[in-house]
Amino acid sequence: MKEKIVTLRTFSNSTEAKIVKSKLDAYGIPCMLTNENILGINPIFDHTIGGVQLKVFEKDIERAEIILGSNE
């Protein structure tokens, strides 16, 4: 059975997204960023594509939220 991938957080810049991703990576939570290259080429697309999205497996949402806390 395939695991569902969901958007955990959305960011307006790739630097902030990479910092949060590296924190999850450090705790062993598989995650990925989408749209970061598009925004790097042309930041005006931010509103069109919804920013840089941090994706995780649905089963990891609760653990990721605990690690990131409510202030990320």
What is the compact description of this entry?
With 72 residues, the protein is α+β, with helices and mostly antiparallel strands. The protein contains four helices and three strands.
Fold blueprint:
Layout: E1 5-11, H1 14-26, E2 31-34, H2 36-41, H3 46-49, E3 52-57, H4 61-68
Antiparallel strand pairs: 1-3, 2-3
Overview features:
72 residues, single chain
What does this structure look like?
- By secondary structure, the chain is an alpha+beta fold.
- The chain has one domain.
- 43% of the residues lie in helices and 24% in strands.
- The chain is built from four helices and three strands, in the order βαβααβα.
- The protein has a three-stranded antiparallel beta sheet with strand order 1-3-2.
- The protein starts with a strand and ends with a helix.
What overall geometry do the principal axes of the alpha carbons give?
globular
Radius of gyration: 12 Å
Q: What kind of sheet is the major sheet?
A: 3 strands, antiparallel
SSE arrangement, N to C: EHEHHEH
Strand content: 15-25%
Task: State the helicity in percent bands.
Answer: 40-55%
Strand order of the largest sheet: 1-3-2
The number of helical segments is: 4
* Derived structural class: alpha+beta
Q: Show unreliable segments.
A: none
Strands, total number? 3
For the termini, the CA-CA separation is 31 Å
What is the average per-residue confidence, as pLDDT, rounded to a whole number? 84
Give the tally of structural domains.
1
